[in-house]
Task: structure prediction
Amino acid sequence: MNPQYLPPQQFGAPPQGFQPSRASPLGLGQPNQPFQNIPLGSSKSGQIPGVPPQVGGQTNSSSSAATAGGTPNVESMGQPSSAGLLSQGGPIRTQIPPSQLPPSQIQTPADHRNDVNQGFTPNAQIGKSARVPDMPPMSIQNGPHHFQNSAQQQLQNGTTPGQLPPPTQHNKPPLAFPLPQLNNPSVTQNQNQFMQPPLSGPPPATSPNVPSRPGINNPSHFGQTMQGGPPPGPNQTQINQFQPTPGGPPSGTYPPNQFNQPPMSGPAPNNQFTQPPLPGGPPKGQNTPNQFMQPPVPGGPPRPGQPMPQPIGQNFASQPPLPSQQIPPGNQFISGPHSGGSQMPPLPGQYNQQYNNPNQLNNQLQNMSLSGAGQYPPGPGSMKGPDNGPHMPPPLNQQSYMNGKQPRGTPVQGYPPMPGGQGPMPVGPGGYPQANYQQPQQQNRRLDPDQMPSTIQVMQDDQANRSGVFVTNQKGLVPPLVTTKFVVQDQGNTSPRFMRSTMYNVPISQDILKQTAVPFSLVVSPMARTIEGEYPPPIVNFGELGPIRCIRCKAYMCPYMQFIDSGRRFQCLFCKVTTDVPAEYFQHLDHTGQRMDRYERPELILGTYEFVATADYCRNNILPKPPAIIFIIDVSYNNVKSGLVQLLCSQMKDIIQNLPVDQGQESSNMRVGFITYNSSVHFYNVKGTLAAPQMMVVGDVQEMFMPLLDGFLCTPEESGPVIDALMQQIPAMFGDTRETETVLLPAIQAGLEALKASECSGKLMVFHSSLPTAEVPGKLKNRDDRKLLGTEKEKTVLTPQTQAYNQLGQDCVGVGCSVDLFIFNNSYIDLATIGQVARLTGGEIFKYTYFQADVDGDRLISDIIMDISRPIAFDAIMRVRTSTGVRATDFFGHFYMSNTTDMELASIDCDKAVAIEIKYDDKLSEDEGVYIQVALLYTSCSGQRRLRVLNLSLKTCSQMADLYRSCDLDTIVNYISKQSVHRLLEHNPKAVKDALVNRAAQILATYRKFCASPSSAGQLILPECMKLLPLYVNSLLKSDALSGGSDMTIDDRSFVMQAVMIMDVPTSMNYFYPRLIPLHDLDISNLTETIPQPIRCTYEKMNEQGVYILENGIHMFLWFGLGVDPDFIQKVFGAPSAIQVDVDRTGLPELDNPLSLAIRTIIDMIRVERHRCMRLTLVRQREKLEPVFKHFLAEDRGTDGTPSYVDFLCHMHKEIRALLS
Result:
């Protein structure tokens, strides 16, 4: 919107003068603007050779660097979900008196504590920290006691059940687990001589070398330390590897078992694990035999600093068995005196018999290598024969992390070595890889992906714990995940469907925020749909008075305004200024200082509501007319041949029956108009009083104008028969066309002029097929060179080649004209350039490459109907106001900005969102909080001018831990995806991706450093609400929007980049982590109207007897294995076996049986959830399309070599350790 259209005092602007309307007489009869009134059936066109395209224009997204963040504080991945732990979320610690420690664990002098962070120990723990400072065992700050029941835990912590613990430094809910950095034995956190940065090289393979521990299924013990390590320092308490969960034996009474027994008497424990001795000899005062006092075993490694032994003379007694050998069940390599090589762990590919038990806890997360070869087995003294001690039952909700431990695929190479590491090194006699500590390594092992934090598990836990009613009556309340089904009860803060924040507890100073690197941003979807059980925002009409606003900052009346002076004035919580209450709005206050009528006024108690705007808020101070929709159809050879023109015209009657209906109305009063074009532009008069439609051709498209005013826009009711007649004539008129050279910019300009002449806002739906090469404004040249994608030069083909379409977009915004492009290309069409019109006007692109009406027709008609029927706002301006100390600075999405504060959106619908970054102006106060108000001024589909107001209040904090507890990871991912895609157009793609990884590493490293309990550097500790951050960042880096290379077209890449820029939070989460839904085990006898539970998005979870749907909102695949039950194939596909299914068809046959009906219903339900009708692609196992299908499996290694989830987690751990060191 041009500045002259802003109403007086709107958004705090001074009154302004208005220029006269540019809608001039239609120029009929003026020179150089010829048009002919041609009877239908003939077509005449003229053409004037090229006028250079216009230049100018602006981009819409001001940006600054920022990215990644966190999720709601729900159950820690390794913690039981029982009462205390869930609400508490804190790490579990227990204090063991020295008298009860085994001899090898009595405290040592401090000289062995100083380099606890020098190396990597893969014994971390999911959900708990492994080490605590010296505190009284039962102090309130000490976190829940290990052997108390859950209620006691909470009370001892100073909390009541269901309440978060006080924000101390030690009750954070970290997610800690060892990553496969270096393969150490299970060691304590002080065993600095074992900890070393990982070497680079292939990620570890699965480790089948750990004996079973019956009865335990708790991955949260991964980080606990095992015996046999160096003693802790004076102020440190060592926690044994086996930490019982609440409800176990009382404190201090450790059952005798392999986790806490002192080393056996007899020969000194072996040192065949090739650990170097502790520098300086044994600690004083300790003569317990353990591995730290042993000289190296012959063939073992040298002490630190010694040269590496050569292969000649190597003692092969300490070598691992060959790959074909099995470990005999009795020969546990973890304990007992030195007895030769049979006690070594198996090499990759071997399998330890004892590993079959699915309830194993001492899992592959121990003894893993991060990204290099090599691995230490657990230390001696850890396992003493059969495990006879008592065990705790598995915690709730953990089974999904423990099942299916199959080895992963090919290791990914190529990560840079860790600091001090030397890259991949040979492994074998005399060829141990070494880091700077000269430590020998064993062969690497693979991490079990099932032990990694799982999106599916997190979603299921959140659904179990947070579903139901979400009441917005508290400041800074973190909403449920977007995947959780919940009903919002608005009690003062807006629904998370309309607005989400990346954090709900804002640090009081910029320094804290900068240190954590968590972005402070909002994702706003102001027109989002409400669901059943929720009320739509009420509409408040103050009549001529108009909305009540703060006199200074122009914030609208909301629940955060405080009435004073007996109700005669109110103080604005945004800017602290007091404003007089208009006499018509006055009301007395009750004894609490609240207005007596507050429960009768939505604006005083709700977070979301609408005001009816007065003429002051309208363009030219005139109340608007109902908006219009104009169909602009390319009738060149390509579209006629593909059947598009015939299809559109035959379905138009049904399409225009679906125009949106405004709240409280029974029918739509929007109008429609029709334009066709090839090398000239044709307007149609469909006035209801005409006997037949009339056609007007503008042949001179150099200076587009509107030849027709009366009768161009009509309602479907008044002009139904005339529109039907027109739709029959258009395919006949252009059926024999040979026009292949088309225009585009003049056609859009024609729609713009039509809306301008009609003095209404609206939407242009443009159906276009080919690169506009005609010699007219907007002509484009073919610059298709997909080899540039993924290189530093990719921005040359991803940015517009001319500014003409940017300028056209700005002109469209100026009259409230939005443009949606439906693209039917068979070759390069330069979406990067023509898509600017959709981007700047708040529109969208729908793309149907190689369109064929008989194949894709249903999908197209479904998309058109969805597009015009969904809730939408026209001719909108959005402004974000914040309380003092912070302000909105950067904006990402589809809109145009002519100043630094107002987003101008020619339209915005329920499926679009914008992201807004907020920065500090000043320090905040800890007791006040942060208040945000988003106001959207728009024209409804019935032509009423309204203001939709969204209010959100956030808490403030001075502790980082409180910030990490209240992050929303879903919103962070949406924000960093928009920011990263925007930065790709200006920066080197490698720099953008590196910044993303570095930011994620900084977020997690800062948590580790300042919020997690002290623990070994080998643990990867993740904050509870951000434990999926590495998974999502990796998915983002692998996505086509950021990494699409030469295997996709430039237009496809531009398309997904634009799609990401408009995605709301639920859509983006589904796009970056697609749903993989199994269909083969549907229970036909008990079918419900729900989509089956998805499984982890990895090929390992699929089997060849299965049938799965994979969908990400843009693509949908139906994969079936070669071993699927023939009866299933017959019922669903109508073929006798999997090999005979026709995979070229785009849908399932409509067969009359319950299974076929159930699966087709599920596909329809998935399409309804997404706002695009996805084409169903059938994929048979081991056939040509399977690599395309696998490309979207987010947890697997990419076909282009991008790392798998496990590999990336290891890489992130390496980055975090580099930052910490």
